[in-house]
Design brief:
The protein is an alpha/beta fold. It is 40% helix and 24% strand. Helix 4 crosses helix 11 and helix 12 packs across helix 13.
């Protein structure tokens, strides 16, 4: 699942191709959020010192106790940062040294200041105002409270008028990696994908490239909407090597939409579910990333790799997007699935431990000094 020998093989593989990373290009979109990372107060000692609610269960108990009455919940902001699945993933790809173009909701007509440093790492274009997320972080997970209304402006018509059809088409035709993420929060994303397949894909030429998708917690969307999105994702396999990323919760939701009856949440059960989803969705690679490990399936052959042990994460919001960036890096470098998954969990582990997106050298350092306690 994860051995010193596998980690050293991955480290040597990254060092051998480090110079190639700067030659790789990525075209990513289409969301964008301002994230506020927040702790919830349990007890306050004084104006400066408080004890946080440690778990979502304790938060749920606090809320349930207010039913039929009322209560006051104090939120303390820890950090304001760029957010959204797309910007976090693209920023991580740029940290590796990749040439990145990003289109999304980052402030319109003026870029929001939170994306300023991102714009210095990547070629950034915005077509609408950003959404806003209050990310309530706990030791056992996070609750994302979002304001999504600006994302309604992400349409095929606005992409063409505010970014430019020719610029979009040029990058769509040339990028080594194309990534369109956060389908759940972008109500017109399926229509945009359908337009791409109708207007751009039939005339594609050259070698097959990588195309990555992340649905991003589709629970609130209807089964019919999810089924249509999955059908469109499979449709891109005709033109690209399609990569679909899911977290554990999403995997079981997609399994339900596909009529699969696998309910076992053990690693063995998730391996079975991943292979079954891959059978139903004949794409190049399906990757699923729970909290402590991750697994990838190609042609229903599953590789599972444990992640690093991080007892006290500095930040968890964006961990999955960092995993996705590391996994895609491995795919672009031609790694086998086990090394791609290892690159993904190493990228995520470095981020949650330090709060920073890793460089290639950072990945090698983590692989050779593996966190275990």
């Amino acid at each position: 699942m994860n051995t010193p020998e596998l980690r050293e093989r991955c480290a040597q593989g990254l060092l051998a191709v480090a110079n190639r990373v700067r030659e790789l290009s990525a075209f990513v979109g289409l969301d964008g959020f301002v994230d506020e990372i927040i702790h919830v107060v349990d007890k306050r000692d004084n104006a400066e010192v408080f004890h946080r609610l440690a778990t979502i269960t304790k938060m749920a108990d606090r809320l349930a106790g207010a039913a039929g009455q009322s209560t006051n919940i104090e939120l303390v902001k820890q950090l304001t940062k760029l957010g959204g699945n797309g910007p976090i993933m693209a920023n991580a790809l740029a940290s590796f040294g990749m040439r990145v173009t990003y289109v999304g909701t980052l402030g319109y007509p003026v870029l929001h200041p939170v994306f300023e440093s991102f714009s210095q790492r990547a070629e950034v274009y915005s077509i609408a105002e950003p959404g806003h997320t209050d990310a309530l972080e706990f030791e056992d997970g996070k609750i994302m409270l979002g304001k999504h209304y600006p994302l309604k402006e992400v349409t095929w018509a606005n992409i063409q008028s505010r970014f430019g059809r020719e610029k979009f088409e040029a990058r769509f035709r040339s990028a080594d990696l194309i990534g369109f993420v956060n389908w759940t929060m972008l109500p017109y994303m399926s229509d945009i994908w359908a337009a791409m397949q109708r207007e751009l894909c039939p005339s594609l030429t050259g070698a097959r490239r990588k195309m990555f998708f992340d649905l991003a917690d589709p629970e609130k969307r209807t089964k019919e909407d999810i089924a249509r999105a999955l059908e469109l994702i499979v449709g891109f396999e005709k033109y690209f090597d399609v990569l679909l990323g899911l977290n554990e919760k999403e995997a079981f939701e997609i399994g339900e939409v596909l009529g699969l009856r696998v309910k076992d949440h053990s690693p063995e059960g998730l391996c079975t579910l991943t292979a079954e989803i891959n059978r139903c969705l004949p794409i190049h690679t399906l990757v699923v990333h729970p909290v402590t490990y991750a697994l990838a399936s190609s042609k229903q052959v599953v590789s599972l790799v444990k992640g690093p042990f991080i007892s006290k994460p500095l930040i968890t919001t964006g961990a999955g997007d960092h995993f996705n960036s590391g996994f895609c890096l491995g795919k672009l470098l031609g790694f086998e699935n086990d090394l791609c998954v290892l690159t993904g969990v190493t990228t995520s582990g470095h981020y949650v431990r330090t709060g920073l997106s890793p460089t290639i050298n950072d990945l090698v350092g983590t692989l050779r000094d593996w966190p275990s306690k």
